[in-house]
Amino acid sequence: MLHAILQEHRSKPLPVDIEHQVMTNTTEIWQQGQPQPKSCDPVFAYWQKKGGLSSKVAEIRFWNAIEARNFGLARYAQKSITDKSALRDADLFWLVRKNPAKNLTAKLLNKENPHHEQIIEYALKRLTSSDLHAAITRWLQLREQLDLNPVQQASLNRYLSIKLATRFDPQALSLIAALDPGYQDNEVTEWRIRLALSEFNWQETAVFISKLEPHAQNSSRWQYWLAVANEHLLGKRQHQHFEKIAQDRSYYGFLASEQLKQSFKLNNEPSQLPAALKAELLSHPTVQRIQELVFHGEYYYARQEWNDLFPTLPEIKQHALAHLARDWNWHSQAIMAAAALQKWNDLTLRFPVQYHHLYQQFSHLSKIPLTWALSITRQESAFNHEARSGVGAMGLMQLMPKTARQTAKKQQEPLDSDDQLLEPETNIALGTAYLGQMLERFNGSRIYATAAYNAGPSRVDRWIKARGHLPLDIWIELIPFNETRRYVQRVLEYGVVYDLLAKRPARLLQDNEVDLLTLSLLYAEKTGSSNSQAF
Question: Are the beta carbons of 273 and 320 closer than 8 angstroms?
């Protein structure tokens, strides 16, 4: 646009207001930390000729480029910095970057200089990759000597603490105690609990749970682990505590129910929408257009129409519109609407089944549970067969093209193009086949296979090698990736929901998996039995 303005006025001076707009906008673009396309060069040339490039503007671009880790661009921007103080800051960055262990010292830094805060953060993270303990030691010194910005302190305390925890560093608990002595960071405290679990330190587990913020402390996750800790500490079964947790429709609620050997609480609240409400909505011109677009598979335009209409409706009509989307098999939109409306207990809306015959057929061929494949799909794409992730995963079961090609080759199935992964039959056939491969690779463990489907089998191999000796519920809790831990727990939880909705016998875990839970092992040890019934 700026180039077009210059072209339009190339034979005469720009009007004052337009020139001001061009100069201001060009400055904003030039000082970004990313390289700009060649097409911007004529505008930048005009801007520089008119005096737009100052030392201050170059300084801003330098630090933006450092933040974006575009070091070549930072070197380029530095050539236009003339202010001596700004040049000293830039040179200090390169000095510290070259050898953070040697040059990141308080005597070179000024706590009043925001660029020095940026240098500290970058250098510590760089040092962390090579020597985490050295980075922590240096940070604790700087934190005491410089009295830095509290926000930056909290950020670096969290960063270093979670690095320690997720690497399961032998000194993690003692070092985290130095980084966050006042239990200020809830996420860090949660990792302290996990580390205590990994060491079967039930006293510390209970103490750390008591340090959580109330909303986290009262969650079914940490109430479950508090009950487990108390069983070990007190030698008394925590039936009442588990009964309370079991009221929750969640992984931990189902885990508590299964250990109590009682039925699961589904807490389903089917919608009681008046029948006339859908009919009224179906007479709305926009709803008619949405329905037609969905029928023809034009989901992009259907979503545009939906996004214009949905916010204008009262809540009861929004809920009814979500059920219409379900009727049209537009399940991903129905699920998103249910979340927006917080209709968490409208399970017919939130847990659809589409392409049931395909899932049944290919689950049987791959020798995996039907419910498992449905739960994976619900978590991966919410039954959106056109789904594409930011990293390239495609379709209902969000297969990466490379994985799909390898699976197709093993199955001796044709896969002529990646776009075939958007076809439900192809996607389900290869997705279930890959799940079957993961199940076989991990000796029939759905837990490990589910984690592998999300994080990759090589990572899961490493996690098993490092912590596979731990009880199964602790192993799941200690999955170092938050996303993968949530993924595994949700897939297990969704499996129970799907089975209950279909009136099939429901289990969160199989008998051999229940045998590997913390409390099952505790009571098996006490009774000398390996049978989970001892619990």
Answer: yes
Task: Return the biggest CA–CA distance within the chain.
Answer: 95
- Round to whole Å and give the CA distance between 61 and 30: 7
Listed in sequence order, the DSSP H helices in 250-284 are 251-260, 275-282
DSSP state of 528: T
Q: What are phi and psi of 525, to 5 degrees?
A: -65, -40
What gap in Å lies between CA 524 and CA 267, rounded to an integer? 32
- What is the extent of the structural domain holding 316? 275-344
CATH code of 502's domain: 1.10.530.10
Scan for tokens 């419910």, then name that residue: 371
Cα–chain-centroid distance for residue 151?
A: 23
Active site residue 380: yes
**Half-sphere exposure of residue 126, counting CA atoms within 13 Å on the CB side?**
20
Residues 390 and 282 in one domain: no
Cβ neighbors of 87 (< 8 A, separation 6 or more) are: 78, 81
Q: What is the pLDDT of residues 120-153, one digit of tens each?
A: 999 999 999 999 999 999 999 999 898 888 999 9
Does residue 299 share a domain with residue 435?
no
On whether the CB atoms of residues 105 and 78 are closer than 8 A, the answer is: no
Q: Is 53 helix (H, G, I), strand (E, B) or coil?
A: coil
User: Is the CB of residue 487 less than 8 Å from the CB of residue 450?
Assistant: yes
CA distance 188 to 176: 8
Coil/strand/helix, residue 117 = helix
* Residue given tokens 């979340």 in the structure block: 339
The torsion angle over the Cα atoms of residues 17, 19, 20 and 25, rounded to 10 degrees, is 130
- Residue 394 β-bridge partners: 388, 399
Nearest CA among 119, 102, 101 for reference residue 110: 119
pLDDT digits (tens, 9 = 90+) for 415-462: 999 999 999 999 999 999 999 999 999 999 999 999 999 999 999 999
Does residue 178 fall inside a structural domain?
no
Contact 21, 4 (CB under 8 A): no
pTM for the complete prediction?
Answer: 0.90
Shared domain check, 370 and 333: no
59, 380, 477, 493: the catalytic one is: 380
* Tokens of residue 165, six digits: 């925890």
Cα Rg for the chain, rounded, in angstroms?
A: 29
Q: How far is CA 402 from CA 392, 406, 415, 418, in A?
A: 10, 6, 11, 9
Q: How many domains does the chain have?
A: 3
d(CA 58, CA 74): 9
Residue 445: CA count within 13 A, CB half-sphere: 21
